[in-house]
Amino acid sequence: MKTMYPDEKGRYGNFGGKFVPETLMYALEELEEALDEAVQDQAFVDEYHQTLREYAGRPTALTYAERITHYLGGASVYLKREDLLHTGAHKLNNAIGQALLARRMGKKKIVAETGAGQHGVATATVCAAMGLECKVFMGEEDTRRQELNVFRMELLGAEVVPVHSGSKTLKDATNDAIRYWVANVEDTFYLIGSVVGPHPYPRMVRDFQRVIGDETREQTVQKTGSLPDAVFACVGGGSNAIGMFHPFLNDDVKLYGAEAAGEGMHTDNHAATINKGTKGVIHGSLTYLIQDENGQIIEPYSISAGLDYPGIGPEHAHLAESGRVTYEGVTDKEALDALTLLTKKEGILPAVESAHALHLAFQEAEKMSKEQTIVICLSGRGDKDVHSIKKFMEKEEQ
Amino acid sequence: MEGTMVQKAAEQAEYPLFIPFIMAGDPDPETTIDLALKLEEAGAHILELGIPYSDPLADGPLLQRSASRALQNEMSLRRAVELIPFMRQRGLTIPVIAFTYYNPVLQMGEKYFFDQLKENGGDGVLIPDLPYEESRDIHNMAAARGLVNITLVAPTSGGRIEKLAGEAEGFLYCVSSLGVTGTRDSFPPEAYSFIEKVKKNSSVPVAAGFGISTPAQVKSLDGVCDGVIVGSAIMKKVEENLERFKNPEEKSNALDAVKSFVSSLISS
């Protein structure tokens, strides 16, 4: 069965849609129209791919992890190396696509939200490269935790706006970015960082990220002669995962998403939105989210700043409900063990986010046969995490 | 068919409609009841009862702070609805509209929410993050119980104005300018022509909201539309008087301070 999601209302099965103030409806309609027109225009598509190739460094490598494969003794393990992309994570694919679209729409001002700063850095980077004005909303708490990324964005010419509302983290930065957009909607483009938000954002971000899966498909066939048996990715909002999964949805390929289980699924400190969340609306989209019985959104927890989002992309919610993708929780500790193993065996330091997918993949690979193949989306590099990894390990030793 | 309470109140008003907003639970649930009565005494026609939410996308800093205080007082959609019978017992007669984001309604259960709202003497609902396209079911559930679902129209609505205005029941909420709730020093001049355009398309009274905080602003809208909605400016008065509300000897003065501010807006 071919998947034709989302429908015209922006629904993925029971999820998605547009739950935004009336003020933004026109902007979303305008965006959808411009997007549909752009993707039909070969010149736009060519420019997007050319920028990915010549500026961002695509295609990224598919690396055979030989020592890990032997160590686990099961399926052959391949890594899709988004960590090798310019700025060090998959986020740039989407930022390039949206910035090109903004420019095409004649919008010179970009607003974005960021948690740990990866999407903020990616956005500030493309804005510098394309001469666009860039404003990044970031929770006050996160500006402290990720001081260097704040400086990096400023160096790139972006204005970083600390957000003091709510819990002062990613969800609040997103709220304030949307509030700013509502007030400046006529000349400002909101460049969202994941497959979340109101329609058409989840679809647009997916389509700008699916280059990950398209390349993986081709590279795996080239190297192994067939499609992989299973594909793994970590899921916060879920953009690297949806980009990776999408080209495989209609194939006989098992798909696994790793959610952040934080200190454990049985504790209150997790960000396992699909496994522990309930249906609701966040940032304009109907999806699963972490909330209390009165519908107030609860701040999630994960060691990984890129995964501690209380919602999840609506398409993931749908893929979970339909059973096409299996989502499992991975704890801080499990992720860091996988991170250490990969670093020691392959000389690749992954982002803590990606390490969640590694744990799930290693677990499955062990159970599989040597003739089988798996691919893990290594969504980003871990240099940014060295400090928090060190802190976590010191705490563990005590 | 008999008209809804909101429709009657909006159409039978003897002077421009005045629709105040207060946040349930700020500074505390008991005072919310007191404030509702003071507002009716001052001459309000319809009350918007705000439900605090953790992530109020359409609200500026003032109502965000107000919501945080209310949430600290453990206010919720269910509890806010349960305040209405206490208001009625003490003599509140004007229609009450629950102003809530969509997520709390979803968690409570949409049908259950409307049953409770009806049973507790509420008259309608306004959900700022539920645009026309997503509001069909809510609209029908409200109508089935003789309640109204208030429609909003914004300066960016453009070609949508006709559709939205045609849908409106009770009154049409005209968002006067771009941005979130909160007081503004002045309206952009195009606000007036926009409101006039909405008025031409609407068969129900049009009330302007967002940013209205002074008697002069209210006066400037006289004749342009049928009434005003004031929220942040009222909750600002509440915020300024937080300490007095806590002190039993000062509380009635604090309530009167809010009332006299509202009276000054209405008499302009």
Textual characterization of the structure:
Chain A has 398 residues and is of the alpha/beta class. In chain A, 46% of the residues lie in helices and 18% in strands. Chain A folds into two domains: 153 residues, Rossmann fold (3-Layer(aba) Sandwich), CATH 3.40.50; 220 residues, Rossmann fold (3-Layer(aba) Sandwich). Chain A is built from 16 helices and 14 strands. In chain A, helix 2 crosses helix 4 and helix 4 crosses helix 5. The N and C termini of chain A lie far apart (53 Å). With 268 residues, chain B is of the alpha/beta class. Chain B has a single domain, classed as TIM Barrel, CATH 3.20.20.70. Chain B contains 13 helices and nine strands. In chain B, strands 5-4-3-2-1-9-8-7-6 form a nine-stranded parallel sheet. The model of chain B has no long low-confidence stretch (mean pLDDT 95). Classes of the chains: A alpha/beta (398), B alpha/beta (268). The interface between A and B is large, with 37 and 41 residues.
Cα shape of chain B: globular
**Order of helices and strands of chain B, N to C?**
HEHEHHEHHEHEEHEHEHEHHH
Order of helices and strands of chain A: EEHHEHEHEHEHHEHEHHEHEHEEHEHHEH
**Gyration radius of chain B, in Å:** 17 Å
Helix content of chain A: 40-55%
Biggest interface pair, residues each? Answer: A-B, 37 and 41 residues
Q: What structural class do helix, strand and pairing data of chain A support? A: alpha/beta
Count the domains of chain A: 2
Number of strands of chain A: 14
CATH architect. name of the largest domain in chain A: 3-Layer(aba) Sandwich
**What's the end-to-end separation of chain A, in Å?**
53 Å
**Low-pLDDT segments, ≥5 res of chain A:** none
Shape of chain A: globular
Q: Order of strands across the biggest sheet of chain A?
A: 3-4-14-9-10-13
Q: Note the beta-strand portion of chain A.
A: 15-25%
